[in-house]
Design a protein that fits this description.
This protein is an all-alpha fold and 164 residues long. It is 79% helix and 0% strand. It has helices at residues 7-17, 21-27, 32-61, 63-72, 76-97, 104-118, 121-130, 132-155.
Length: 164
């Protein structure tokens, strides 16, 4: 159970344990100004990039893009800023992790392996025996579901196409 100190005693203890002003300034980072300047430069760069992205989108989309921008109203600037920050973070992750798209040889090898397994009836007997068929079935259902969600987005309706 936690003991409760009276309010005046608590304030007295907190005041005594507080760090004096001269000690706070002694522990302050010497590069605070440099860090603030870097942050301002990054913010300016992100805002400039966001402006370029916005102008490119308006130019690409034409009047539809302009109307969409007007609909965003006051949210436009924060949205563009967040998008540019996200893009920069993703770029840093891409560089740091050394990510790259697969080579043509890797894709070709993967498809050859799949084709060899599918064309061999012994493979299906093997996976049916050890239970791998259920896992492959789940993957197939997931792929089909993702395909159907893409169709729904493409049609912009849950069922059927808008014919009017």
């Amino acid at each position: 159970m936690r003991t409760v100190l009276p309010t005046t005693l608590r304030h007295t203890v907190l005041r005594r344990t507080a760090v004096p002003n001269n000690v706070r300034s002694r522990f302050a980072s010497t590069s605070t100004e440099a860090t603030q300047q870097k942050a301002k430069d990054a913010l300016g760069s992100a805002a400039q990039t966001a402006g370029k992205v916005w102008e490119g989108a308006v130019k690409f989309l034409g009047p539809v893009g302009q109307r969409a921008g007007n609909l965003l109203g006051g949210y436009r600037q924060p949205l563009l800023y967040n998008l540019s920050v996200t893009r920069e973070v993703l770029k840093q992750i891409y560089r740091t992790e050394g990510l790259a798209p697969p080579s043509f040889a890797t894709v070709q090898t993967a498809y050859q392996t799949i084709w060899q397994r599918v064309s061999n009836p012994a493979y299906f007997r093997e996976i049916a025996g050890n239970g791998e068929l259920a896992r492959i079935g789940v993957y197939a259902v997931e792929a089909y579901g993702i395909f159907k969600i893409g169709e729904i987005f493409g049609r912009r309706t849950l069922v059927g196409y808008d014919l009017h």
